[in-house]
Amino acid sequence: DSGVTQTPKHLITATGQRVTLRCSPRSGDLSVYWYQQSLDQGLQFLIQYYNGEERAKGNILERFSAQQFPDLHSELNLSSLELGDSALYFCASSPHTTVGYTFGSGTRLTVV
Amino acid sequence: AQTVTQSQPEMSVQEAETVTLSCTYDTSESNYYLFWYKQPPSRQMILVIRQEAYKQQNATENRFSVNFQKAAKSFSLKISDSQLGDTAMYFCALGRQGGSEKLVFGKGTKLTVNP
């Protein structure tokens, strides 16, 4: 157990639907990062939150949004889902960048 | 922009032998960090080793060591005494110290350890 908890582990949904992925960071970590891993794109940075505030944004689609709550857990919302959104979505947390991330086990999203 | 390149999509090694995975990177930053992550079939991402760019000494963690060549922007991972449990995807990653703290990942090298 890495200490970073992601739920659900697996999610199957239809095109056009909306889903919410949840992440609880490791105790004491203030930063949460979301990454998308698809077969042909490797790990793509989506967004980072630090202590409730958006800190950095990557190639995140407008259909996707995220937030970090006062208890530091984060949610990634994916809407108007398309087949191409099928991927493994990772959450990671860190106290600061110098020690490297701790990753959660990921959410496998399948859009059918 | 920062980039990370892993030129070996797949590699294989016999159990107990040594293997080296290559990684090159590009950054205009003077202070940065480099990482190797392992992703076994379970899909969990596991930090293997990290290197601070300001340190000349190569990092070592048990059977894992790096060869950090700053001028050449090269950061290879050496796995000694390979074990079956080392079979995994290995990702090289680059992080900038300060500012945005995202990591940029290479596309990975799939390593298979054969018995």
Strand content of chain B: over 45%
For the largest beta-sheet of chain B, the strand count, sense and barrel status come to:
6 strands, mixed
* Average pLDDT for all residues of chain B: 93
Low-confidence stretches of chain A: none
Q: Which protein chains are joined by the largest interface, and how many residues does each one contribute?
A: A-B, 25 and 24 residues
Overall geometry of chain A comes to globular
Judged by helices, strands and strand pairing, the structural class of chain A is mainly beta
Spatial gap, N to C terminus of chain A: 30 Å
Roughly how many Å is the radius of gyration of chain A?
13 Å
**Structural class of chain B, please?**
mainly beta
Rg over C-alpha atoms of chain B, rounded to the nearest angstrom:
14 Å
Task: Describe this structure as you would to a colleague.
The complex is a heterodimer of chains A (112) and B (115). Chain A has 112 residues and is mainly β. Chain A is built from no helices and eleven strands. In chain A, strands 2, 4, 5, 6, 9, 10 and 11 form a seven-stranded mixed β-sheet that branches. In chain A, strands 1-3-8-7 form a four-stranded antiparallel β-sheet, with no helix packed on it. In chain A, a hairpin with a 7-residue loop joins strand 9 and strand 10. The radius of gyration of chain A is 13 Å and the shape is globular. The mean pLDDT of chain A is 92. Chain B is mostly beta strands and 115 residues long. Helices cover 0% and strands 53% of the residues of chain B. Chain B has no helices and twelve strands. Chain B has strands at 3-5, 10-14, 19-21, 24-26, 32-39, 46-52, 60-61, 64-69, 74-79, 88-96, 103-105, 109-114. In chain B, strands 2, 5, 6, 10, 11 and 12 form a six-stranded mixed β-sheet that branches. A four-stranded antiparallel β-sheet of chain B has the order 3-9-8-7, with no helix packed on it. Chain B has a two-stranded antiparallel sheet with strand order 1-4. Chain B starts with a strand and ends with a strand. The A-B interface holds A 2, 31, 33, 42-43, 45, 48, 55-56, 58, 88, 90, 92, 94, 96-103, 105-106, 108 and B 33, 35, 37, 42-47, 50, 52, 91, 95-97, 100-108.
